[in-house]
Design brief:
Length: 415
């Protein structure tokens, strides 16, 4: 009758209350573990449904999402520059000057890449042709167990031409779709720059206006969550730019020392690839190795691969902990899972945005949760847990049996 303790006499007189405890909110016929599992299950299902709804809504306005995400990245990078300019000039002028500085830096970088490609194109074409001939000769007469002759290569080229002729219409339609994608890209860039201007100039006022639309009792929670999320996101964005710039400079130095043609464009490719976690830098490394192989031979390509791998180790073990610190504290396994899931869901876009989104979500969760003290004792191994559980069950059964016999004897004596 413990479930009826504390109830009023009227509640105890409810029909069936004494025989059916579930009418007062407790159903002792269902095990506690099942009630707990059911409670967690429907909550998890609601959470999954909410996340799925967010993904669906984002997919419907993908261009807007990309533009806002890009605007937040640019804002996090240019915010320190704008604040520094704002110390000596009005905020609006500081915003315009910061954006102009970014355009000048990017424009100078692209100009340098284009001029370096144009200056080395003739020599690279000759080196590339000789390198291709060396590769064909190695495939045909080298020590590999499988030989590939010039006739085989000519057959593959002819098959490729035939396939292109048969699928010309599909290729044309894909080209038209690509032209539409280029237009969308310009639209995303324009919208991102437009949003960046307001985020830099009036970002604090916009955040204050949003908080004033919320009930006063929930503003403190939103302030804590927003501060933690922006701190993590801005740290990740600025850290990624700094690390990518360092990777590009180190790659340019290595490629110039090894005499690889097009060192500047390849360094820019490494810089861009660093924005895609785990897969961007290796892809850029493969391209640099192919150029080195075609121009300077196998040994030079192997050296390029070794040095770029060392740059990757330097980035992972020194640059990332030094630059990002505790702003982005994600385990490498979590990063790998996030990048893989993001790639399967949204391709390259998912690979780029997955890690910062997961980092922000974890930062907000860590800020809002109530964390219990850590365990002081070491966790026992699975074998120790299994053996201790078996011992308790056997001892419990024995004690339960003796207890049962003792109770029976006491009941008999009382009778």
């Amino acid at each position: 009758m413990k479930h009826l303790a504390g109830l009023s006499p009227a509640a105890k007189k409810v029909a069936g209350a004494r025989r059916n405890p579930s009418v007062v909110g407790v159903d002792e016929s269902v095990p506690a573990w099942l009630r707990t599992s059911a409670g967690w299950s429907w909550r998890i299902l609601l959470l999954v449904a909410a996340v799925g709804l967010i993904f669906y809504a984002t997919a419907q306005v993908q261009i807007v999402f990309i533009a806002v995400f890009l605007a937040l990245v640019i804002t996090s990078v240019l915010r320190p520059v704008t604040d520094w300019y704002a110390k000596i000039m009005p905020r609006a002028l500081a915003t315009a000057l910061a954006i102009l500085s970014a355009f000048l830096v990017l424009g100078g970088l692209l100009t340098y890449v284009i001029t370096s490609v144009a200056g080395q194109w003739d020599s690279l074409a000759g080196q590339f042709n000789s390198g291709i001939e060396k590769i064909f000769d190695f495939l045909e007469n080298g020590p590999l167990p499988v030989t590939i002759t010039s006739a085989d290569i000519e057959t593959w080229i002819e098959n490729a031409r035939t396939w292109i002729a048969e699928h010309g219409g599909d290729i044309a339609s894909q080209a038209a779709a690509s032209a539409g994608s280029v237009f969308e890209g310009f639209a995303v860039l324009a919208l991102a720059i437009f949003c960046t201007i307001f985020f830099l100039a009036r970002g604090k006022d916009m955040w204050t206006w949003f908080l004033n639309q919320l009930p006063s009792r929930s503003r403190e929670t939103w302030i804590a969550a927003g501060g933690a999320g922006w701190y993590t996101f801005s740290g990740y964005a600025r850290g990624t730019v700094i690390i990518a710039l360092a990777d590009g400079i180190l790659a340019a130095i290595v490629l110039v020392i090894l005499g690889v043609p097009l060192a500047a464009p390849l360094a820019v490719l490494v810089f861009i690839g660093a924005f895609i976690p785990l897969i961007g830098a290796p892809a850029a490394m493969v391209v640099a190795m192919v150029v080195a192989l075609a121009a300077n031979g196998v040994v030079n390509a192997a050296l390029v691969g070794i040095f770029i791998a060392l740059i990757g180790q330097f980035e992972g073990h020194i640059l990332q902990p030094l630059v990002m610190g505790k702003q982005v504290s994600l385990h490498p396994v979590v990063v790998a899972l996030a990048v893989t899931a993001g790639t399967f869901i949204a391709g390259i876009l998912g690979a780029v945005v997955s890690v910062p989104l997961v980092a922000v979500a974890w930062a907000v969760f860590s800020k809002l949760r109530r964390k219990d003290p850590p365990m002081e004792e070491d966790i026992p191994t699975a074998k120790e847990i299994a053996l201790s559980g078996r011992g308790r069950s056997s001892n419990g059964g024995a004690s339960g049996g003796s207890g049962g016999r003792g109770s029976d004897s006491e009941a008999t004596a009382e009778a």
